[in-house]
Amino acid sequence: MAGTYDDRDGLIWLDGKLVPWRDANVHILSHAMHYASSVFEGERAYNGKIFKSREHTERLINSGNLLDMPIPYTADEIEAAKMATLKANNLTDAYVRAVAWRGAGEDMGVASSRNPVRMAIAVWEWGAYYGDAKMKGAKLDIAKWRRPSPDTIPTAAKAAGLYMICTMSKHAAEAKGCSDALFYDYRGYVAEATGANVFFVKDGEVHTPIPDAILDGITRRTVIQMLKDKGITVHERHIMPDELGDFEQCWLTGTAAEVTPVGQIGDYTFEVGDIARDIAQSYEELVRA
Q1: Looking at the DSSP assignment, which residues form a beta bridge with residue 101?
Q2: How far apart are CA 90 and CA 76, in angstroms?
């Protein structure tokens, strides 16, 4: 599939029915466009099966509830809609984007309880998120912004508004020739990349930030269990920035990123080592099993 994302062939599931791709539009006064009342999921289908599909659907519903925006479809209905959209577009290996938002209605201020909650599902072919970084290791900038305190945002929600600083940080990173940016959190601990969780290796053991101020990624949880099944010790803990120089390997995890080794963060360098390569390969085998 080629072209801009608003001008493609195919079908998108919108509010309960499949519509031509170019006709899947919303009004300019949709509440989400003005107040970020939107939640979403990014998923991948491999060989016709969406990996961890139900977990993604349940998180989408929970995200809506956290934003006081109940999604008007059950988990079963959303699951069926995702598969119908894949089938309608003749795709078996694809990225799946489910999104729900407050649409246009009687309210056009901060409050939006009288506006309908709408939902769409789009699917398309999408290769490696970081290009050839899976072989060479991604290069990360360090973001000037920090992930906020859970007292200020619903960190357990995959909400569109929470990605504002991610977009700005990724733009700044790309301008420096980097693939992505690493955030610290409001306390100064290592947090995550703009759309992926981060892991480090030291002396054969794995360290990853506690998700107490970041989204606990579905891929993150999957990889932690895979590492434990391999007999590798995993430390979920607070990590200080000055520890980055002590780690030997690093990788990112996420639905889009899958498992992508990291070769550099700021001035710190990492090898694309055995554990990083092994877990990336094992994850690839798992999702296609």
Answers
A1: 38, 118
A2: 21
Per DSSP, what are the bridge partners of residue 11?
Answer: 20
Question: If we measure between CA atoms, which residue out of 245, 59, 287, 261 comes closest to residue 159?
Answer: 59
For the chain, how many residues are written?
289
| Catalytic residue chosen out of the listed positions 158, 170, 202, 228 | 158
- Give the chain's domains with CATH numbers: 11-124 (3.30.470.10), 133-287 (3.20.10.10)
Our CA angle for 217, 87, 8, nearest 5°, is 85
User: Is 230 tagged catalytic?
Assistant: no
State the CB neighbour count (10 A cutoff) for residue 19: 14
pTM (2 decimals)?
0.95
Q: Spell out the residues 6+ positions from residue 50 whose beta carbon is closer than 8 angstroms to its own.
A: 43, 44, 56, 82, 83, 86, 96
Give residue-wise pLDDT tens across range 216-272: 999 999 999 999 999 999 999 999 999 999 999 999 999 999 999 999 999 999 999
